[in-house]
Amino acid sequence: MKVLITGATGGIGRALIKVFYRNGWEILAVGRNQNMLTELKEKYKEKLNIYSLDIEVEKNIDELFKSLEGQHIKLLINGAGIGELGYFEDISYGVEKRMIDINIIALIKFTKYFYGKTEGIINISSTAGFQYGGPLMTGYYATKSFINSFTFGLMGEGGKTRMMLLCPGPTLTNFKGVNKELKGLAKFYTTTPEEVAEKCYSDYLKGKRISIPGKINKILYFFNKMMPIMFQLKVIKKIQEKKTKK
Predict the structure, then answer these.
(1) Is the pTM above the cut of 0.85?
(2) Cα(38)–Cα(43) distance, integer angstroms
(3) Which residues on adjacent β-strands are paired with residue 28?
(4) In this structure, what are the phi and psi dihedrals at residue 94, rounded to the nearest 5 degrees?
(5) What does 147-205 look like in DSSP terms, one character per residue?
């Protein structure tokens, strides 16, 4: 069984590799950091194949697809994603476009290529995708809302490939704005990459359509639906403002 994981050198990506390796899968790891990929290759040996490329550039993805011809990949995990913290007026168009190219365009391109060929596709989004918007992370939240809507749409079409949406909340990775020193309520709803990966694998095997790691995050997901829009936006803004001051 083969699984292809984009964003494989990130915190959640690396944790997913460990879980799938432990369960006997052969892993195709796609990432930008050649050094990290080499380290992973040395650790997992013949069970891991590495592909170093920047998926921001579409022609790089096309070249990858050519190299994968003839391989039977059972599962695709679209895990690559980036974010930017700050007021929209202070973030350049180039940075916003890069988020769209990686978080949306690359995800669509991989999904388009593998849809109908693989047994399943897991799109990694975020609980942010369920919010009305994300002040100070406007572009990022918007890309995650797209991923949610896009994935749910494919679920509704009922094609041959089974779709699952993984929506972690704040996770202890190197993602921008994540504070490694947990304080207050953050201790209760922040998860580790390992927890996210284990939940993802378990829920996929159970045939679930949506996976939200962490009991508190699940509660917040349902509570979010009852919150007035402007109140929700004010709360998010305060949370993000605190991150900019650290």
Answers:
(1) yes
(2) 9
(3) 4, 49
(4) -60, -40
(5) HHHHHHHHHHHT-SSEEEEE---SBSSS-TT--SS--TTHHHH-B-HHHHHHHHHHHHH
Tokens in use for 226? 């009852």
Q: What is the pLDDT of residues 145-168, one digit of tens each?
A: 999 999 999 999 999 999 999 999
pLDDT tens digits for range 81-124 = 999 999 999 999 999 999 999 999 999 999 999 999 999 999 99
Q: Does domain 2-244 sit in CATH 3.40.50.720? A: yes
SS3 call for 80: coil
- In whole angstroms, what separates CA 13 from the centre of its chain? 8
Distance of CA 105 to the CA centre of its chain: 14
Q: For residue 100, give both structure tokens.
A: 């769209």
Where are the chain's structural domains?
A: 2-244
Q: Where are the beta strands (DSSP E) in the chain?
A: 2-6, 26-31, 48-52, 75-78, 120-124, 162-166, 210-211
What letter would DSSP give residue 72?
-
Instruction: State whether residue 96 is helix, strand or coil.
Output: helix
